[in-house]
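Hi all, long-time lurker, first post. I run a small reading group and we've been trying to get comfortable going from sequence to structure in the token notation. Rather than ask abstract questions, I figured I'd post a concrete chain and ask someone more experienced to write out its structure so we can walk through it together at our next meeting. Sequence below, copied exactly:
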Amino acid sequence: MNEPPLTSLIEGYSLRVEKALERYLPIVAEPPERLHAAMRYAVLGGGKRIRPLQVYLTGEALGIEPAVLDGPACAVEMIHAYSLIHDDLPAMDDDDIRRGKPTLHRAYDEATAILAGDALQVLAFSVLSRPASGPPDSRSKLAIIQCLADAAGTSGMAGGQVVDIEATGKVLSLGELEQMHLLKTGRLIQACVKMAALCCPELPTEVALGLEQYSHDIGLAFQIKDDILDVVGDSQTLGKTAGADQALEKATYPGLVGLAAAENKAADLARSACAALEPMGSKAERLKELAEYIVSRLR
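-- Answer (accepted) --
Happy to help. Here is the structure in token form:
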């Protein structure tokens, strides 16, 4: 039987995580209504859903039922959404467009945006802690919570954001730039793969190591591709302001090594990521397709 194309899987899993997010997010009718409406505005009906997709496809390769992965997939998307809300604030990038619509602080106000981001961060860990969410055994559940917390904290996304702010207007070395990208973006993408893997306590060592290398490489490739799209993309396709990195004097891969070298690096990382999955054999085909999708996407 022919397998469905990756685009069909992306659509299917995007719909699945959207429905799951609908269930987990508080309804607008419950007080505080404005805060709940802001949270739903920021999370639902938009975005590439790459992070949840990574959770589901890793789980699919490992034979894990999608229902076990709904909690981790939603939790990582909530963390991602909260980071975007805060990243767009005037104190950070002061952006006006996100996912093709006004940023949250423009649609509501700055105070509501800050609180919505805070609430989404807390909700992510609430979701992971629930009995019906994720694997049934407490050891794996706690490991997943710890994994996401580490990826979002000072040794991951938040720490990378600080490096990004401090690097504005400066010229970084290639090593410093890659480290910033791995912290700010890569660690959360690595967590997507690891959370799914943690649902398999008996995972063979060579498979676990291969997935770790894969997630490292695609995490860096993803951010390099984002840097490239900021240069060559347009705002309508991207759903956010094109050229914002250059306008804000951000440290980027094309800015440091040039556009062609950045494209080559992203492609090399995708190939390296795919090679790391060889111990999984044919079960890893979808993950390999996703690696190629990440470096060829237009938004």
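A couple of things your group might point at:
The mean pLDDT is 94.
The domain at 6-296 is CATH 1.10.600.10 (Farnesyl Diphosphate Synthase).
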